Amino acid sequence: MLILGIETSCDDTAASLLEVRNNSLKVLSSIISSQIKLHAKYGGVFPSLAAREHVKNLPGVIKLALTKKHLKDIDVIAVTRGPGLISSLLVGTAFAQTLAWKYNKPLVGVNHLEGHLASNWLPQASNNQKKAATNNHLPAMCLIVSGGHTELVLMTGINKYKLVGHTLDDAAGEAFDKIARILGLGYPGGPAVAATAAKLKVGGEKLKIKLPRPMLHSKDLNFSFAGLKTAVLYLTRDLTKNKKRLSPQIRAAIAAEAQQAIVDVLVIKTILAAEKYKVKSVMLSGGVSANKLLRSELENASTKKGLKFFRPKMDYTTDNATMIALAGYWRWKLKKQKTDWKSVQVDANLDL
Ligand code: KG4
Ligand code: ZN
To answer: Which residues take part in binding substrate (predicted)?
Structure first.
């Protein structure tokens, strides 16, 4: 069967075509129109601008996603209904509802976070195929780390999720974005901080810069990143007193230490959660899962504990519609929710 996925929860306009046949997945198309350049000058996403761009871009993005097939051939349409920016979500769902109504197709509203979880099952966007949802590595401890979320979710099956930890303030991606802004590195902050950290010369300033690892030793499974951001702000302010500019090496040292601090907390808490709930595997997802240091350190820590480790292919770390198509397929198969176009409701704060 063919699933058309549509994603507009934040600043990426995305549409994908996923084929599921004999329990095997094939990505026929995965189109993303990024608005990064537009929002960069604001240092973050400007909601009303994002919604306007979705209106402009969605028809073309869907058309591109459907180059190999016609809408008449689609079996199910899946669209993100939350969580996210309300104005952005409304554009995508209204568009999906119109298509579902016009072509008389079932429409499934998808939770964006379930999409990120599903991204671990996706094959590369080529002709590669992979068994769909082989669930023998469940239960899994899933770390979802994005611009808006930092959550530890115990997954015991499809549609069986339990939130066991979350951030009390900023999300990990938000911390990367804000630290990048303080250091003058641009938006989005995650890739910018990682690239700047990579410029640190071995044996350089790294040892002199020490930043906090908030809640590292708290017994619970929650996170907090606001203090780390403030520590970077004060450190930068101190170092730039008397109008001094940060040297490239110091800036790289701060970026490297901030990145390490975020990764340390994420890894330690995820392993703590995995041991507490006696899971078989650890799964990483969300935009911050593109971070190479996090990918390798979480993999090492998981395998040391005898746990399987999964992370999405790079194409599916940040927001995309292929993960929405797969989560929509899961939902459609469960037959637990209505699929007429009228039943999809947007919820900016939707829980998993
Ligand atoms: O999942 P996503 O695309 O959108 C949301 O649902 O929020 O995540 C975007 C977040 C941004 O905060 C961005 O800075 C972060 O993911 N990010 C990264 C990297 N690539 C993207 N963070 C750290 N390292 C990266 N390489
Ligand atoms: Zn996301």
So the answer is: 144-148, 177, 190, 291
